[in-house]
């Protein structure tokens, strides 16, 4: 029995097919958070670590607002301080968070809407939301006040305060944060931050309440490995036969 060698065109077709599929490989990581959530604050080092680790890979990162409502909001500064002591010791933090920002609101729409509105001015990274979180949880600033939240954001990203507050208080921005909050609740989890991972082959993983990078990184690696295996298969066999 004689076997014919693959021609150059055959080899190139396989290579091109593989490269085309690899180019489509991606894992999207979305973090659902509330700007005033202390547990989301403790997750920030893990978020930075993940973004650095996968900076040169087909992994994209983004965040969405998931507003804390009255059921998840602390009822007093004394209660907040108790939770801050607990989470601070769990995270081995050399400092305690500041509950001075709490004013008894049922939800803190201002800082979350301001963080969301900053996107409309080209600030799509973490700068504004992190500045608002630091102002609240480290400095005790009343970020629940629209003017305070806008002042922090405008100074951080060199934005026009009047334009920012107009956008932040618009019905469109509130609609967006309530839509992403509804997305969070549709996940049927209760803890923020919630990390949602989805790959181009529709693998999906959800981590709720974790603040360490290890489990999320392991899931990302597994998804990338599966997507790579699909790429190899597609290069050898192409698309599935029609029905």
**Cα separation of the termini:** 33 Å
Count, helices: 10
Q: In what range is the share of β-strand residues?
A: 5-15%
- Strands in their spatial order, largest beta sheet: 2-1-3-4
Rg, Cα atoms, Å: 22 Å
Coarse morphology: globular
What is the element string, with H for helices and E for strands? HEHHEHHHHHHEEH
CATH topology type? Glutaredoxin
Instruction: Give the fraction of residues assigned to helices.
Output: 40-55%
Q: In terms of per-residue confidence, which ranges show pLDDT below 50 for 5 or more consecutive residues?
A: none
> Mean pLDDT, rounded to whole units?
91
Assembly form of the protein: single chain
- According to DSSP, the number of beta strands is 4
How would a crystallographer describe the biggest sheet?
Answer: 4 strands, mixed
The first-level CATH class is given as: Alpha Beta
CATH 4th-level superfamily: Glutaredoxin
Q: How many domains would you count in the coordinates?
A: 1
Class from secondary-structure proportions? alpha+beta
**Architecture per CATH nomenclature, i.e. the level-2 architecture:** 3-Layer(aba) Sandwich
Task: Describe what this molecule looks like in 3D.
- With 243 residues, the chain is an alpha+beta fold.
- The protein has a single domain (26-237), classed as Glutaredoxin, CATH 3.40.30.10.
- It contains ten helices and four strands, in the order H-E-H-H-E-H-H-H-H-H-H-E-E-H.
- The chain has helices at 8-24, 38-42, 44-53, 77-90, 109-118, 127-137, 146-157, 161-168, 171-186, 213-237; strands at 27-33, 59-65, 194-199, 204-208.
- A four-stranded mixed β-sheet has the order 2-1-3-4.
- Helix 3 runs parallel beside helix 10 (213-237), helix 5 packs parallel to helix 7 (146-157) and helix 6 packs across helix 7 (146-157).
- The longest helix has 25 residues, at 213-237.
- It starts with 7 loop residues before the first helix and ends in a 6-residue tail after the last helix.
- The model has no long low-confidence stretch (mean pLDDT 91).
